[in-house]
Design a protein that fits this description.
Elements (H helix, E strand, L loop, with lengths): L3 E5 L12 H14 L3 E4 L11 H15 L5 E4 L5 H14 L3 E5 L8 H14 L4 E5 L1 H4 L5 H7 L5 E6 L4 H11 L4 E4 L2 H9 L4 E4 L6 H12 L3 H17 L7 H9 L16 H13 L3
Parallel strand pairs: 1-2, 1-8, 2-3, 3-4, 4-5, 5-6, 6-7, 7-8
Helix pairs in contact: 1-2, 1-9, 2-3, 3-4, 4-6, 8-9, 8-10, 9-10, 10-12, 11-12
Length: about 290
């Protein structure tokens, strides 16, 4: 079971929107050195919505091949089409991903029964460990704790990324199925509290720009050290807010560009960070010692 800081990695791009493979390797090296526990490739932060299927699979393969087992890769393979999710999950498993992250089907708004049958079908089709991903603020689909508890009975459903930011709900989920599956935070502002309550880690946007501090925060929180984790969390709090001044991953990609780590490329319909927010992001980076 993967624990700790799992970075929701951006996909670096050139100015024309093509994938920057050397930039991707530069980011992977950063996380190897910083103590990140796993790489989350091609999730929401990785612009999965606008990568072609071929690019999507190639980013996963590139991460796996470059890391050569030094860090596990959690591949984003969710879709609002069950059959496409199966195909992406199978491709990620064949590429060597340690696990797959599957977002709730967006736009077509399935019922709780439909959500259960969707994830059950993917789990039955591909034996790779699978992490559910509930982020109703992005998908307009909210998977209930009751549905998660049912899915936790399936052998290769091994975790859930809870990006609701609702700590009471997260604590309930840990109490009901935390012994069977790992409950990960997908919300940087509330991640520390969820880990102190028994969560297994944080699938983090902030870890893109503060990989070392986030890895240490996770280590301390998982060890039950509230005081130590809180000291780091306090420093990162302004950064957590600043990275959502516009839709993710707009601010975090601009921050990485400002740090000299990647080029400024991002794919339409997303655009580079509006100039009126740039000083706020700079100030948050500086306040966090970056």
């Amino acid at each position: 079971m993967i624990t700790g800081s799992i970075v929701a990695l951006v996909t670096p791009m050139h100015a024309d929107g093509s994938v920057d493979w050397s930039g991707l390797e530069r980011l992977l090296d950063l996380h190897l050195e910083a103590g990140t526990s796993a790489i989350g490739a091609v999730g929401t932060t990785g612009e999965s919505a606008t990568l072609s299927v071929e690019e999507h699979c190639e980013v996963i393969r590139h991460c796996v091949d470059y890391l050569r087992g030094r860090l596990p890769v959690v591949a984003g393979t969710g879709s609002n089409s069950t059959w496409e999710a199966i195909d992406l999950t199978r491709a990620a498993a064949e590429a060597g991903a340690a696990a797959c992250l599957l977002v709730t089907p967006y736009y077509n708004r399935p019922t709780q029964r439909g959500l259960y049958e969707h994830f059950k079908a993917v789990a039955a089709a591909v034996s790779v460990p699978q992490i559910l991903y509930n982020v109703p603020g992005r998908t307009c689909v909210d998977m209930s704790n009751d549905t998660v508890v049912r899915l936790a009975e399936l052998e290769n459903i091994t975790g859930i990324k809870d990006a609701t930011g609702d700590l009471a709900r997260g604590r309930e989920l840990i109490g009901r199925c935390g012994e069977r599956i790992a409950v990960y935070s997908g919300d940087d502002p509330t991640a520390m509290e969820l880990m102190l309550a028994g969560g297994r880690g944080n699938i983090s946007v902030t870890a893109n720009v503060a990989p070392g501090p986030m890895a240490e925060l996770c280590r301390l929180a998982l060890g039950g050290d509230r005081a130590g984790a809180s000291a780091i969390n306090e420093v990162l709090t302004p950064l957590n807010r600043a990275l959502f001044l516009e839709a993710n991953p707009i601010p975090v990609k601009w921050a990485l560009h400002h740090m000299g780590m990647i080029e400024e490329g991002i794919r339409l319909p997303l655009t580079p960070l509006d100039e009126r927010f740039r000083e706020q992001v700079k100030a948050a980076l500086e306040a966090a010692g970056i």
